[in-house]
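Memo subject: From amino acid sequence to discrete backbone structure tokens
Keywords: amino acid chain, backbone geometry, structure tokens, three-dimensional fold.
Body of memo: The sequence and its backbone structure tokens, given next.
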Amino acid sequence: MRTNEAEAVFRRYLEQRGLVVSRLTAEEAADAAIGFFESERADDVEAETGDMLLFQWGTYDWHDGNGPSFQLELARQFVLAGFAPDQADDAMWQLRLTLHYPASEAADALGAGHKWCERVADTDAFRTFIRTTPVMAFAAATGADRVELSPDQVG
């Protein structure tokens, strides 16, 4: 898969499993993001750190008219191969799967944090980490207000 195809390939991956982005639960989102990371490798990225998976959470207000929300995100990060060091910002992309929950004291108590999965060989431990976080327990009990999938340049 090429990086610029990641969103379409992920949507097909979900569809083949009977899943739709807008209706994903946190557990389904985590399982799908990890499964996609394991099965679909990017072939236009840096060899060592060009294709990684990020789990992150926290309460944010991006001033987009939606107000603050607690966000649980799984982001596939791609670092494209062949860019000169002075062009590094152009080389970094993420495919973000973001679940939004109502901002609340319970959500605020979870704080903010992140964890990276840098290699497919580490996905079992990564999956266990995600499943056992208080963030996932909160998400299961609360239910997402909305779910978004978006490719973004992050450099």
